[in-house]
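Here is one chain, start to finish.
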Amino acid sequence: MTAFSNLKRNQYANTIYIALVCFLTYSCIFAFRKPFTVGLYKDMPSFLGVDFKNLLVIAQVLGYTASKFVGVKFISELKYVGRGKLILILVLISLLPLLIFPFVSTPLNILCLFVNGFPLGMTWGIIFSFVEGRRGTDFIGAAMGASIIVSSGFAKSVGKWMQLYFHISDMWLPFFTGLVFVIPIIILVYLLEQIPPPTNEEVELKSARVPMSSVERKSFLQKFMPGVLSFIFIYVLLTLFRDLRDNFAADIWTNLGYNNANVFTNSELPIAIIVLTIIASMILIKNNCMVFLISQYMIIVGFLMALIITLLFEYQLVNGFHWMLFVGLGLYIGYTPFNSIMFDRMIATFRLKGNVGFLIYLMDSFGYLASVMVISIKGATHINLNWAQFYAKGVLYCSVIGLIVSILSLLYYSRKINQFNYE
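Its structure:
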């Protein structure tokens, strides 16, 4: 019994260690992506009537989106040799246009941000390839999800600190902030490379993860096409309203009568803790089919929560703070499984030969198209409307449509599972 307990402790310790390495590695990636947003660029000219900083945001997201479409092929076919070197190459490629950025004039300097965003869009899939198909992947995926929530703010804070204490100009800030993180990411990638492959027991439990050829990707899509299309549709809906919430949060809170800075943290921190605790707890369930179905029930519950709380808000039965809190919780309960547990357990449920990267990059490519649309609207226009009312109406329609498609998707995959078990 003691030996068994020690083995379990070692498994948990290894999982926590791997999760920490992945968390820190992906957190460093944000230092090459986000610090430019700290700058105000007041002296820079607008272009085509659009503010210079808004153009930088749009350009980088366009590069990131293009990367996701390329990643459907690139990440799914990724060989498991030299992945660490590839991460470092992509990071250095992203740093190079930040070095050129201060020397070129508008609009060429805007293109630098497009080039910066493109290689960074590949890094998530490469990092996750080290950890998928393991007993602890659910927990590790939750840790990577936490890095997305936390690291953007941390990278901006480092950039702001450097600007205040070293008096670095807006144009040089992105490069020097990224430069600070070069050594840390080299060390972390080395640690990432030392992670051993899944054990035979884990392969038996979760199935082997292998590169996918174009023929294998086509075969997969033919086998699951209705379900994949439903997932893409749901993911685009969730991404669209997550980004509306993120990009217009200040406008929404102002319309609701909340003008204090703490409202952002007070509403988002509980969401992050609750959602990531739920995702991480899936590590306790070995049954892949059960977790795959639970992840889809989570999506349904998320849409239902957003719908009910918005109806209560429309009838003035809850205040604006609790409406935003629970709408955000509902949307993230539905959104997070796509980036962590669902596809890892799907591959294991159907004993598929493939990898999570293919499915996530397929979802992300369309999801980021929705992001481009939201960011472009915010950056290129000055719409004068009540964003709280607009967002509430949008959430109602989004939730109803999302509920219908999610239920149909659950029925489809339940039938697929029954057919697979029968065979």
